Amino acid sequence: MNWYTEQWSTECKFSIKYDEKLYSEKTPFQQIDFYKGKEFGTFFTLDGLMMVNEKDEFIYHDMIVHPAFATNPNIKKVLIIGGGDGGTAREVLRYSSVEEVIMAEIDERVFRLCQQYLPITAETVEQDSRMTLLFDDGLNFVKNASDASFDLILVDSTDPISVGEGLFTTAFYEECYRVLNKDGILINQHESPYFAEYAQNMKKAHKKIKDIFPITHVYQYHMPTYPSGHWLFGFASKSYDPIKDIDINKWESFGLKTKYYNTSLHIGAFSLPTYVKEGLDADE
Amino acid sequence: MNWYTEQWSTECKFSIKYDEKLYSEKTPFQQIDFYKGKEFGTFFTLDGLMMVNEKDEFIYHDMIVHPAFATNPNIKKVLIIGGGDGGTAREVLRYSSVEEVIMAEIDERVFRLCQQYLPITAETVEQDSRMTLLFDDGLNFVKNASDASFDLILVDSTDPISVGEGLFTTAFYEECYRVLNKDGILINQHESPYFAEYAQNMKKAHKKIKDIFPITHVYQYHMPTYPSGHWLFGFASKSYDPIKDIDINKWESFGLKTKYYNTSLHIGAFSLPTYVKEGLDADE
C-alpha cells in the first residue's frame, strides 16, 4: 500500500493513497513528484507539498482568477508569477477580452511535466496566441518590467520557502505596485490562518502589502488538500474595491461556467472569521 | 509515537499525534475515546470519528448557535438534540434573554466524561438554572414534546450512523416542525460536500428538510478537523430568513465576543460554491 503523506503541522498529517508514482525529478529548483490515485486522480508535489490534484484544482484556480475579473471586467494585460501547472493561465484565457498573458515560472520542468501528466491544467495554455511563457524568476521579471504595464498580477506561488521565498518580500510587492497600471490589481497566494507556521506567513504578507497598496483585502476558500483546508488569497489594488466595485451583470454576461466561483460567493469570501481578521490586523 | 488516525475517505486519512490516551469506554451506544496532544489539546472521538477538540471547537459551536440568534434575537426556548460535549449549550446560555434550554443527549457518559476531561465545553452547563439535561433519545423526545413549544432546535449530532441515524430521517424533521412555534428555526449538522459519502448525506438531509419547511438554507464554515475541512449546517424555518431578517444591530447589542462568528461572516456563510449549490439542488 502506497501513501503520500504531508505534515500539516508537527503534530498532524494528511495522507493520500496512490496506485502509482508516475514520475520524480530533482530540478535545480525543487523536487517534483507526480502520483496517481483514485480519490484525487493525478496530483503533483513540490518539495513534498501538495500543489495540484485533479479533484480540487478547480477550487484554487477559480478563486485566484475570477474575483479580480468580476471586480474589473476590463482587464486586458495579465502577468502570472509562478503558476507552472497552467491552471491559472487556463482560467485567465477563458476571457476573450484578455489580450495578453505573460507567465513567469521559474522552473520550466514543472510546466513541461504538467503538460505530460496533468493536461487538465496545462494542455491548452501554450497554444493560445495571447500567451507568452517565460521560464524566469518572477522577482527578476518584475524588476525589469516597465511601469504601469499590467492590469492584473496573479502570484500563484508555493509557500515562502525555497523558490517561493522572494515572492513574499516587500521588494517584490513594491515592484508589483510599480508595474501595475493605475487600476491595477494584485492577487497573491496568501497562506492560511489555522496552523501556526502558515498563519505567521499570512500575517507577514498582509502587513507588507498593506504598507504599499491603498486597498487591501483577504478572501477565503475551502481547499481540502491544503493544510487545514482553510486557505486565503490577498486582493490588493490601486483603485478597485472587490466588494463595492463588483460588476455582477458584466461578469455574468461573460457566460463562464464555473464549478466553485459565483458572484454571491465572491462577496461572501471576503467575510472572514473574527480570529482571522484579528490575526491580519495584529501588528507583528 | 502515538497517532490517532481518521479515514476521511477510503483513499485518504488525517492523523493527529497525541501524548496520552486519557480514557476509553464502550457504552451501550458507542465507543468513546479521549486523547491529549499538543496541536489540538484534549480531543474525543465517538466510534473513531473526531467530535470535539480544544483548538477548533469554537468554530463549530459559534456556527451552530449564533446565526439563529442573529436572525431571531427573541429566541427564548431552545431544544438541543445531541450536543453531549456541552459546547452548544454553553454558547446558547451566553444569551441572557434565553429562558429555557433542554438538551436531549442519548448517551450520558459523553456528557459526564466531557465534564471531567473537556471542561472548556462542559463545565458551566449543568449549573445553569435555565438548563434541563435529559439523557434520552432525541427522536423519542421530540415525539413526546408538545406542539409549538420551542423557538429553536439545534441538532448537534454525529454522522447518520449508529445513534445519529434517526436524526437524519423525515420522521424526525417532521416532529421538529411540529414542536417548533410559528417563528421556529431548526439548525442541523448538515455534513459536507466534498467526499462522496458525506456529500450523499448532505443531499439526502437537504431534500427531506426542503419537503417540510417553507424556508431552507445551508451555510458553510471552515472546520479543519472534520473531513475535508468544509462543513455545513442547515437552516430551516417557518418564517425567518437568515439573510433578509438578520438583525445586526440587535445582535451586536448582546455584546458577545466570538472568535469565529461575526455578522458579516453570517451573510457570507450562506453563499455557497457552485458545485455545492448544484449538489443540494440535484434530485436524488
TrEMBL record, chains A, B:
Keywords: Polyamine biosynthesis, Spermidine biosynthesis, Transferase. Pathway: Amine and polyamine biosynthesis; spermidine biosynthesis; spermidine from putrescine: step 1/1. Coiled coil: none annotated. Its EC number is 2.5.1.16. The keyword Transmembrane does not apply. S-methyl-5'-thioadenosine binds at residues 30, 105, 137-138. One of its GO terms (biological process) is spermidine biosynthetic process. One of its GO terms (molecular function) is spermidine synthase activity. GO terms for cellular component: cytosol. The active site is at 156 (proton acceptor). It catalyses: S-adenosyl 3-(methylsulfanyl)propylamine + putrescine = S-methyl-5'-thioadenosine + spermidine + H(+). SUPFAM superfamilies: S-adenosyl-L-methionine-dependent methyltransferases (SSF53335). Pfam families: Spermine_synt_N, Spermine_synth. Spermidine binds at residues 61, 85, 156-159. The keyword Zinc does not apply. Residues 1-238 form the PABS domain. Belongs to the spermidine/spermine synthase family. Homodimer or homotetramer. Catalyzes the irreversible transfer of a propylamine group from the amino donor S-adenosylmethioninamine (decarboxy-AdoMet) to putrescine (1,4-diaminobutane) to yield spermidine. HAMAP family: Spermidine_synth. This is Polyamine aminopropyltransferase. It comes from Oceanobacillus arenosus. The lineage of its organism: Bacteria, Bacillati, Bacillota, Bacilli, Bacillales. The gene is speE.
